[in-house]
Amino acid sequence: MRTTTISDLARPSLAKGVRLQIDSTTGKSVLLYPEGIVELNETAHEILSRCDRRTVGEIVRELAEEYEADSEALGADVRETLSDLQRRKLIEFN
Amino acid sequence: MPRPYALLAEITYRCPLHCPYCSNPVDASVCERPRRPQDGGYRNGELTTQEWKRVIGEAAALGVLQIGFSGGEPLARHDLVDLIRGAREAKLYTNLITSGIGLDDDRLRDLRDAGLDSIQLSFQSDESTLGDEIAGARAHAHKLNVAAKIRAVGIPLSLNFVIHRRNIDRLREMIDLTEALGASRVELANVQFYGWAFRNRAALLPTREQVDRARDITTAAKARLAGKIDIFYVLPDYYETRPKPCLNGWGQRYLTVNPIGDVLPCPTASSAIPNLRFDNIRARNLDWIWGQSESFNRFRGTEWMPEPCRSCPQKEIDFGGCRCQAALLTGCAADTDPVCEFSPNRAVVDSVLRNTNSSNTHPRDWTYRTNSEPELTSV
């Protein structure tokens, strides 16, 4: 899937059966799913903790403000992370 | 010291099915009798609900994030819902690995309400004639029914097929069934030879021709269903030239607690490696067993390795393969896994393959798994 296919209006959410949780051993975020664990980097954590009916556009805007980053470059990062997670069936779009 | 990520809770060896590929110990009566010296003085039989809850709490404190409830058939325990609730309270991701026998609407709702995250339902084939023959029980129709019920109550469903000589030619149909049942993930796991499967190896090992066809079918299906169904194909390791990275290394990420509370680096270790002493949860806490016990440290890291592993550039990749397989095939758990092309014992595997693939060898009958039934403890 190409990253450009994710629209600004798409609303990402965790796929069914996937849980976002803090790993109390490391203090880092992890995604838990049937027989698998993904440790999240900071970008993925910041994105996924905002996947609560917000749109991709809203998430990018918020992160750009918070990190005072260029929203175009950041938008590409966010889309890349989201499409990677979608490919692994860890998130879906509503 | 590494920390464990996942606990396999084999809460009972009791099972209503009789699959000849079962990896449980052939002497499964181990769950009812104090067989090994370290059991002396403890209550016979399966761990109690309270003992399992203690194990779950200690596992979470050690860093475990996921728990698989397995067996045997875990539904044979009447306290399963209670144990799953306990695991959720400890923030573990809970997975039920089941034949589906014993699941009805009420129990499914109870499991969902207790917080069960996911169910892995086993099938023996895509249709009932062969499926029931392999299971040694009329189970297939019930499983289809159960799969629909699982979807209806909203618990994520994955399927598991153990693949062997008798059903490997039906992979395409198994994948079709996965699609039809709306499962999001399917495990097509070539049989690994431990427990009953080791005893039945001559009947279960597929031919090279079958294995080659299976590889093509799964590769094509993976491409076709990408993004829709995750297909997880477990290779038939006898046909490989390098060993599987068993457990990602002994005592690195996983631990198993068996029905009587022995804590094992892998589920088949206690039957495959009889001369290694495994500590029991009734005598020690999980933290001590994981960190300090002889069994968990025996093959941890790379220090224990013999040649050719010791000087092999792959040693941090495949960890010398599987200790249980080495023990079963050479009699010594510290040997290089004989699947490895550099193992001095590779000839053992090759001779098994020659027998299976020679045109004048007919497939053998298998021995069905039986349940021993001395003084069943009800919990």
Provide a quick synopsis of the model:
The complex is a heterodimer of chains A (94) and B (379). Chain A has 94 residues and is of the alpha+beta class. In chain A, 38% of the residues lie in helices and 20% in strands.
Describe the model:
- The complex is a heterodimer of chains A (94) and B (379).
- By secondary structure, chain A is α+β, with helices and mostly antiparallel strands.
- Chain A contains three helices and five strands.
- In chain A, the strands form two sheets. Chain A has a three-stranded antiparallel beta sheet with strand order 2-3-4, with no helix packed on it. A two-stranded antiparallel ribbon of chain A has the order 1-5.
- In chain A, strand 2 and strand 3 form a beta hairpin.
- In chain A, helix 2 packs across helix 3.
- The mean pLDDT of chain A is 89.
- Helix content of chain B is 35%, strand content 12%.
- Chain B contains 15 helices and nine strands.
- In chain B, helix 1 runs parallel beside helix 2.
- In chain B, strands 7-6-5-4-3-2-1-8-9 form a nine-stranded mixed beta sheet.
- Chain B is of the alpha/beta class and 379 residues long.
- Chains A and B meet through strand 3 of A and loops of B.
